[in-house]
Amino acid sequence: SLDWYNKKTSDMLYPVALPATAVGMGGSPYVNVGDMSNKGVELSLGYHYGRKNDSPFKFDFVVNISRNVNEIVALAPGVDQRPYGNFRSLTTSILQAGAPFGSFYGYDMTGIYQNAAEVTQGPSYVGARVGGPKYRDVNGDGTVNAADRTIIGDPNPDFIYSFSLNANYKNWDVAMFFNGSQGNDLYEATRYFTDFNTFAGARSARMLDAWSPTNSGSMIPSVDNRATNFEYSSSSYYVQSGSFFRMKNLQIGYSFPDR
Questions:
Q1: Could you say which of 57, 96, 152, 207 is the most buried, measured as most Cβ atoms within 10 Å of its Cβ?
Q2: Taken in order 139, 143, 148, 154, is the CA torsion positive or negative?
Q3: Using an 8 Å Cβ cutoff, are 157 and 184 in contact?
Q4: Where are the alpha helices (DSSP H) in 111-212?
Q5: Torsion of CA 142, 147, 152, 158, to 10 degrees
Q6: Which of 149, 112, 116 is nearest to 132 (CA)?
Q7: How far is the C-alpha of 146 from the C-alpha of 137, rounded, in Å?
Q8: Smallest Cα–Cα separation from 192: which of 227, 150, 225, 234?
Q9: Contacts of 20 (CB under 8 A, 6+ apart)
């Protein structure tokens, strides 16, 4: 079976910002202005063996795969984007017209500052240091600041899939189910506590491979008390691959004769 869909959702609730003098002690009102698009395809293939005869061996095999493309078409009049998802000092996500819902937001980390010349001669930020994260100068103005935050990840997978197998041979039976997701990202906010000096607690084992003059190929910033809050900001350092494939169920059985 093959299904294709093109779903358009209109008039979603969105808080429209008002001047403080108009809002007073209240919050921004929600109005029906948001539009979103979901387009996708779903494919299911099944094969069944041994159903038309008295064969002692029978099995069923089913595979499913689906792909959904999500896009925020519009927010509110005059609003192209809205950062959200505040966690500690992180702003993790953004609503942006033309981008998928839930897109991750922050600085695009391109490497580690290897020496003082890279800090002073290239695009950098206030408090940049050797051994600290290097961020991409998105707007090309020669410095790195809040204007250079961009979309750094997408939690929506490229496609998801699964397959199942049920088989019988005489009194024995087996059932297996596998599923997976491909192309989705995860925001690993725990790194805020384990990889930086933001929390007086346990450190991740990743820090054993942190940058140093003798380990210059590492993409893990060195731990330094001179690190500024800019280093802890939301960046692609927190974004990790969420793709997976796993067996979710395995069942083996034996049916005893009635006697």
A1: 152
A2: positive
A3: yes
A4: 116-121, 191-194
A5: -120
A6: 112
A7: 10
A8: 234
A9: none
Which has the closest alpha carbon to 44: 25, 63, 67, 61? 63
Closest CA to 106 of 223, 218, 237: 237
- Those residues whose C-beta lies under 8 Å from the C-beta of residue 120, and which sit 6 or more positions away, are none
10 Å CB burial of residue 213 (0-12, 13-18, 19+) is: exposed
Backbone angles phi, psi at 101, to 5 degrees: -65, 135
Spatial separation of the C-alpha atoms in residues 135 and 140, rounded to whole Å: 12
Eight-state DSSP code of residue 124: B
The DSSP code for 222 is P
Q: What is the pTM of this model?
A: 0.86
Per-residue pLDDT tens digits of the chain, which is 259 residues long: 999 999 999 999 888 777 666 555 667 788 888 899 999 999 999 999 987 777 889 999 999 999 999 999 999 888 889 998 888 889 999 999 999 999 999 999 999 999 999 999 989 999 899 999 999 999 999 999 999 999 999 999 999 999 999 999 989 999 999 999 999 999 999 999 999 887 777 889 999 999 999 999 999 999 887 777 888 899 999 999 999 999 999 999 999 988 8
Burial class (CB in 10 A: 0-12, 13-18, 19+), 146: exposed
